[in-house]
Each structure stands twice: as structure tokens, then as C-alpha cells.
Amino acid sequence: MKNFVKLVRFEFNRFAPIYATLAVLTALIQLIGVFVTTNVDLCQENGHQNSQKFI
């Protein structure tokens, strides 16, 4: 059991930077998507369908 815990800890430490990077990238993509979608919706609501400004 002791060796299993050591192996799990080793694998977690090995992949933790990759998981953290993926989590940050996912959060950034989600935030950018929210801002772009909101901006597009506001432009369409205001009647500016042809001049969409992206952040």
C-alpha cells in the first residue's frame, strides 16, 4: 500500500503542471467566449449588426 501511495503521489506531481495549464487555458477561453458573446448580443440589440466590435 505504501508503494501505491508513492506511485500516486509521483504521478500527480508529474502531471499537476499540465492539469493546471489546461485549467487556466479553459478558464481563459470560457471568459473570452462570454465577453465576445455578450458584446455580439449587445451590438445586435442596439441595431449595429454590421459593426461588431470584439474585445
Characterization of this structure:
- The chain is mostly helical.
- Helices cover about 80% and strands about 0% of the residues.
- The longest helix has about 45 residues, at about 1-45.
- The relative contact order is 0.09.
| Number of DSSP-assigned strands | 0
The best one-word shape is: rod-shaped
Number of helices: 1
Mean pLDDT value: 87
Distance between the termini: 52 Å
Order of SSEs, N→C? H
Helix content: over 70%
Radius of gyration: 21 Å
Biggest sheet architecture: none
Identify low-pLDDT runs: none
Per DSSP, what share of the residues sits in E-state strands of 2 or more residues?
under 5%
- Structural class designation: mainly alpha
Show the helix and strand layout.
Blueprint: H1 2-45
What distinguishing features does this structure have?
mainly alpha; 0% strand; 55 residues
Short characterization:
The chain is an all-alpha fold and 55 residues long.
